Amino acid sequence: MSEIQTITEKISLPELKKVAEERFGDMVKCVVDLEKGIMAIGGEMHADEEALLLENGSKQENLWGINLYPDNKDGDFMEFDSMINIRPGQGNRSRGVEDEATRNKILEVVNKLVG
Predict the structure, then answer these.
(1) Which of 2, 23, 84, 107 pairs as cysteine with 65 (C-beta 3.0–4.6 A)?
(2) How far apart are CA 36 and CA 101, in angstroms?
(3) Over the stretch 47-59, which tens digit does the pLDDT of each residue have?
(4) Which of 36, 72, 42, 69 is nearest to 54 (CA)?
(5) Helix, strand, or coil (residue 4)
(6) What are the residue ranges of helices labelled H in the chain?
């Protein structure tokens, strides 16, 4: 099994696919830090990746959990779904990411780091 990795520079789709195959088959759990523009991948749970980022100085309010599907294209590549996203204090009451601006920022970080 792969270890949790902090991604600060571009990761290729074949590398991402390898992480997916080692853990879940077709999916990579990912936590994105909107402030730092980085992400953590390879964990069994988003909470594991979140903990690694927090240990390395990230702030809770900037971390969002998503799932990436390296074999899928366009709208099916990313899924906004994680227990760590439930934060009523920030106005997010679901496992998704309810704020469109936040979703767009997540998409920007992922597009910068994956490809």
Answers:
(1) 84
(2) 17
(3) 999 999 999 999 9
(4) 36
(5) coil
(6) 13-23, 46-55, 100-113
Strand pairing report for 28-33 and 63-68: antiparallel
* Whole-number percent of the chain with pLDDT over 90: 92
The tokens describing 55, both together, are 């240990």
Cβ neighbours of residue 9 closer than 8 Å, sequence gap 6 or more: 113
Query: Cα(104)–Cα(88) distance, rounded to whole angstroms?
Result: 20
Q: What is the mean pLDDT of residues 35-56?
A: 97
Residue 70: helix, strand or coil by DSSP?
coil
Is residue 84 a contact partner of residue 46, using CB atoms and an 8 Å limit? yes
SS3 69: coil
d(CA 23, CA 6): 16
Q: What is the pTM of this model?
A: 0.95
Do 41 and 4 touch, CB atoms closer than 8 A? Answer: yes
Residue 66 · residue 14 · CB < 8 Å: no
Which residue type occupies 111?
Answer: N
Cα separations (Å) of 110 from 13, 31, 83?
12, 10, 19
